[in-house]
Specification:
This protein starts with a helix and ends in a 7-residue tail after the last helix. It has about 120 residues and is mostly helical. About 60% of the residues lie in helices and about 0% in strands. The radius of gyration is 15 Å and the shape is globular.
Amino acid sequence: GAVGRFTLPLYFGRADAEAASVRAAVGVLTVELARLDAACAALDAGTPFLAGTAAATAADCAVYPMIRSVQRALEKPAAAAFDIPFRDLRGVHPALGTWMARVESLPGYEQTFPPHWRS
């Protein structure tokens, strides 16, 4: 999918060779991140998770790692070569950022965060 076409070249030094694929993925992700941000904006205090529930569900557990992977790829130096409208992911999509922070505050989150991503 678009997440892999965006993140993998940036992670593994293939951004130049796969620039067309990265650019195409940016187009798809621009639309999808806006859609996800709108869905997050519709959440309320009583049902703050993606499935419209009071507690996290499989939806949150499946979507969060993909979005966090996009954010990590944006931090790679090779990302600077691309015009990326969502470069400031949480700034451009504040409701998405709020939801991400909510997931990050869940018990056990720290134990699941990849240690090599901390640097």
